[in-house]
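Appendix B. Raw example, untouched.
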Amino acid sequence: MSRIAVLKGGRSLERHVSLKSGARVEEALRRLGHEVLPIDVDVDLVSRLTQAGPEAAFVALHGRDGEDGTVQELLEAMGIPYTGSRVSGCIRASDKVLAKHAMRDAGIPTPDFFAFSETAFKGLGVAQAVPAIAARLGFPLVVKPASQGSALGIKFASSPANVPGALLAAFSYDRKVLLERYVDGRELAISILEQNGEAGALPIVEALPQQQDFYDFESRYEIGRTHFVCPAELDDELAEHATAIALDAFRLLGCSGFARVDLMLDATHGELYVLEVNPIPGLTETSLLPQAADAAGIGFDQLIELILAASLSA
């Protein structure tokens, strides 16, 4: 038995998702015989960790502070082992702009994009370049904040008239936004899990939203809003190719422990594109990592045990 702090909640806009993930993790850890120390992350985090003296921390924080390397840096300073990617991996994966530039430079396919800060729009007149950007990327455009997860702030601009509103929505979540080429096709998720120091891919999940044209925040977390197929119905060669791309992205960004790679399979040409790598994927009832693990014959408790074991052996 180990004394495990479960870090959840926090200040991000994904707080309630994090609370759900954390609650499931706590239940699993208790069933596994561990002593669980639930911590809703706040300004007293250091004092609570110091007082509790956990042997390890299970990071179930999503978004700001949890996935961007902040809490990982703090745990490193305090000498507390923790689950998931190390500091540098979190920094690279959580910043979509940084991650996409790295993937493009490494030859990993990702949709074409441009990224600008809010100050660039205000101080450099970038808004006047939107017609040129649209001419390069085409419509519809995907407009998304640079560092949010769970599809928060993502908007589709089907015409030039929609771009200002989409930008306004994205800038309400982050000071930098991506304008990305829209890929019409199938939405795939490949979860990566390290066992005995080796990263391996779990069965591919395909998300089929039932009420929207895309897999948005509500579709991700409201039961019944999305139909999931796992394993996704792909031919073996295509599945192997998608898996290889996902593992390449995982390694390129320096992720470890576990992560989820989101891809699009282009409906017209059959090409694969990496949208993002999530260094701390959700562990809720509708989250994709647990579904993929279940399809591989790994129950939720075993999944939590494997994630924890990977952190303690790192």
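End of appendix B.
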